[in-house]
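Example with several molecule types.
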Amino acid sequence: MDGFSFSTDVRIRFAETDAQGIAHHASFVVWLEVARVAYLERNAGGYRAIREHGIEALTTEVLVRYHRAAYFDETLTVWTRCTDLRGARFSYEYRIERAGELVVDGYTRHAMVDRETHRPTRVPSWLADAIATAEASDS
Amino acid sequence: MDGFSFSTDVRIRFAETDAQGIAHHASFVVWLEVARVAYLERNAGGYRAIREHGIEALTTEVLVRYHRAAYFDETLTVWTRCTDLRGARFSYEYRIERAGELVVDGYTRHAMVDRETHRPTRVPSWLADAIATAEASDS
Amino acid sequence: MDGFSFSTDVRIRFAETDAQGIAHHASFVVWLEVARVAYLERNAGGYRAIREHGIEALTTEVLVRYHRAAYFDETLTVWTRCTDLRGARFSYEYRIERAGELVVDGYTRHAMVDRETHRPTRVPSWLADAIATAEASDS
Amino acid sequence: MDGFSFSTDVRIRFAETDAQGIAHHASFVVWLEVARVAYLERNAGGYRAIREHGIEALTTEVLVRYHRAAYFDETLTVWTRCTDLRGARFSYEYRIERAGELVVDGYTRHAMVDRETHRPTRVPSWLADAIATAEASDS
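Resulting structure tokens for the full complex:
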């Protein structure tokens, strides 16, 4: 995928469908989080490791645009990139595809916070560097 | 709430929290749907009645901005209004408050579709009129 | 309901349905928890208060029997009683009805634990007494 | 695992945790379903194929016993076997492990039904045979 160096696959669970016979729209918000966790595992030692450093990421904004419905048992590919890292803030952009066809796109915004106080704290340089390296490798 | 004539309350369930100790961000997307269903029940005979007319609404876009964290067992008030109804398309705007304090705001966009084919279909005039009346009463 | 002194109502959300057109079976497990929280609010100052005492309840067993399907937007009544409180252990029994008709019954078992260590700890006597009083009043 | 010929892995999502810092107990009920779908894919052409035959399986009973807590990002192995297939009825037994340690065990019971009417219907012989073959291979 143009501009994306990372993707992870999600298989749609029956519990994630609704009475319209499609994947419920809130399920996609969960899959974006699954993709972020996989992205951090690949590029920065994992979200669990980040939390063990006493910090965690709050979600401050979610935008999802639904282009096509998705169905039980389909495999979706979640293309993910981290962008706009500055201070305590960073964003992700996503493009979810099914067999090369756009299903959903969107972004999320986040703030790094102290785990105890939930006060904003700069993304540590080791993590910022790891993400910069991961995103630079996309070309 | 200025510009909103309708609200419904949601009590945060334990299952809706996460290991950050707060309501998980995807839970809010579900609560917006709960608010739409309550809005249509008040103003248009209910979403179930709409589906019995052979139509239903797909969600085509969701934007949520998280201003403050919310916690288990808190009661949130979801202010809701329907906007931009034109042809098969319409939107909702939301403002979620806790004791008068802004927690989340955002919008959703929707397309009315035929229940069998999921093809777009105009919002029927009885429903458009009911929503126009509801929104006009807010002033 | 014979033998039950407490009930709370749950309205089935669209997000809780699945592609079979019915409420997903895991949704009921969440509603049992909603009922426990409501039960403790009525009878023991609330689950949040209990957690503020430094303890919380883990679920150690869940049994649910599904007698009838339930559907979007239906209101279910969750009859709930607390039983078999001994030491750190206690149980709940449930009967979920729709307009007097049995939909689901079941039970859950729990262990009271220290919030920090998650080690079992006796149910404090103020809480055991509150529950005993609540259950005795049912007759 | 003794007596089980099939297992599938589940990675615990952040959205599946709760404010106790552990995987929410209802999440396990969803994972049992994920395991059934994977079991049928391996052994019987998939649940989607079964639904395309005009039948589907309702869940009539769930029992889950929680032996240990599970945490964000852990990988759980869900051992699964199909048992007691007779007429329209069948069951599954489960044992969920983390690195060889028992986390949860339990069972679910099901009824095969017609997709349109939700009336019980015999498990078709091609499906019963596929399951009998799968379970016989476990030895």
